[in-house]
Amino acid sequence: MATSGADRTAERLAAVPGIRRSPSPKLAQFMLPHFLDAETCAALVERIDAGAHPSTIADPNGDTAFRTSSTCDLNHRDPLVAAVNRRLHDLTGIAPEYGEPLQGQRYDVGEEFKAHTDYFDPHGADWETFCAVPGQRSWTLMIYLNEPAAGGATRFLATGKLHQPETGKLLAWNNVRADSTPNPDTLHHGMKVRKGRKYIITKWFRERPWPWADGELG
């Protein structure tokens, strides 16, 4: 991950004013409240609603209720999306070409994403499809865009930590260990929304340049 700068991201994040680091040695995880303002969050919610479609998973496991949310592939040419994307790259210190396009997710009542990891299984059926060129996912940055009336927390199983949705709050974690092997202690559950809707955006970074960036980032 040294080429992308992801090996230095934890140190960079730890120096951000107001950020909180998880005390667990099992994973590198950070939380920063109010990363985005309410107006920006509301504008992103509008974009997600306009482009939402059923979410999918890599390496399907036969459980049709494993991920029941909706997903929106945000337009990276949209000035608002581009500005948020730049902020995330600046925050991590990871060069733009190593980032996936920004994605939004929407959870209605009863919808969830059961316990999963964001890294790809090197032995999975979809490894070549999603990782042959850009490689493994290094970091995840997730931002809550609103606060549903009930439910919708993100639970990390290895630490037992529940992160409640708060408008503008950012969570960041490293999907791989120092030796670049996947870290199973990043297993997390997007818990069911009990009342209202939950919106988030997610930014994933890769160990090698992402093909979409060619000619798009100049």
UniProtKB/TrEMBL annotation:
EC number: 1.14.11.2
SMART domains assigned: P4Hc
Pfam families: 2OG-FeII_Oxy_3
Cofactor: L-ascorbate
Domain Fe2OG dioxygenase: 98-207
Organism superkingdom: Bacteria
Record keywords: Dioxygenase, Iron, Metal-binding, Oxidoreductase, Vitamin C
Top EC class for this record: oxidoreductase
Single Gene Ontology MF annotation: L-ascorbic acid binding
The protein's name: 2OG-Fe(II) oxygenase
